[in-house]
Amino acid sequence: MERVDGVESDGMERRAGAEPGGVEQGAGAERPDGFERPDGVRLYAPELEPQDGGRSPDTSWPVWSAAIALLGGLVLAAVGGLLVDLPALAFGVEISSSHTPPGLAIADTVVQDVAFVLAAVYCAQMSGRAVRSWQFGLRPPARGWWKAGGWVLALIALFFALSVIWSALLHPEEEDLLKQLGSNEGAALLILSAGLTCVIAPICEELLFRGYIFTALRNWRGTLPAALITGLLFGGVHAGSAPALDLVPLAGLGVGLCLLYRHTGSLYPAIVAHSLNNSIAFASLEHWSWQIPVLIIGALLGVGALAAAFKSIGVIAPAPLLARADN
């Protein structure tokens, strides 16, 4: 909506004197359809968290923009990778198609993850549309964290069981991503690899695939087709970083994360599930034992710390309430 002299284009006037996303204390009583101030003005939040039955938010994002977001993210990642690698080449760092120094591999992966987020946000605001954090599901689970946590654990358990069966039948190669990131070449690279794999990647990939692509595709044929397509894209984007036979289970995980997002109404459980899966996989590849719960707790704390940081600077925040006089 466009604002003209403090008035939204749909005729709703923004109230003054209140913090964004909230109502001044003592202003009035909360009602199911808004807040009423003593002066008779009712406050509405049409762009806050819509009445979506506790499911993932509905948006007006066009279906075709899902392809633009994915392709844009990949192109931005490639360009960003060149901007990182070319100066390194100029300083004599040896880079080939079969070998990238671990430090550069980590930098390239961070650039890719940031590119995914930038592509999603850019597509969300195309044609001058306002971008709100709730549109990406950055809000608490509608039915509470206890129920959402149960669904997260159920998804991880199901994926783990299916992965064990898949591995027993087809014997895929062991993933060598951590070797590329240099996790075995010192404590610093190990910590950076863990942070990237278990904290940064889950957040950025969920924002693009579930937060944007899945949400846009639902406007075409509904939840299940959107989840299947998003899952296939999610598995495919890991080609090169994961063995080919692992792309099928990853696609299945992608479908499950879409359904988790849809039925909790929040992207946070999907991010947590993604982080849990990556943490378990990381620890397994490192052949860890007692370190596994330490990594899981550290990863979840990292996700929570980033969410809190973005909330503190207003990146994750509900839209301001709008005031309208009842006729």
Give a brief description.
This protein is of the alpha+beta class. It has helices at residues 65-90, 102-124, 145-170, 177-181, 187-221, 223-236, 247-264, 268-285, 291-312; strands at 3-4, 7-8, 13-14, 29-31, 34-36, 41-44, 322-325. Strand 5 (34-36) and strand 6 (41-44) form a beta hairpin.
Topology:
Elements: E1 3-4, E2 7-8, E3 13-14, E4 29-31, E5 34-36, E6 41-44, H1 65-90, H2 102-124, H3 145-170, H4 177-181, H5 187-221, H6 223-236, H7 247-264, H8 268-285, H9 291-312, E7 322-325
Antiparallel strand pairs: 1-2, 3-7, 4-5, 5-6, 6-7
Keywords:
7 strands, alpha+beta, globular, 6% strand, 327 residues
Largest sheet: 5 strands, antiparallel
Order of helices and strands: EEEEEEHHHHHHHHHE
According to DSSP, the number of beta strands is 7
Number of helices, counting only DSSP H or I runs of 4 residues or more? 9
| Average pLDDT number | 84
Which regions are unreliable across 5 or more consecutive residues at pLDDT < 50? 1-35, 41-49, 319-327
Q: Helix amount, in percent?
A: 55-70%
| Gyration radius over CA | 22 Å
Side by side, the strands of the main sheet go 3-7-6-5-4
Strand content is: 5-15%
- The chain-level structural class is alpha+beta
* Ends apart, CA distance between termini: 22 Å
What general form does the structure show?
A: globular
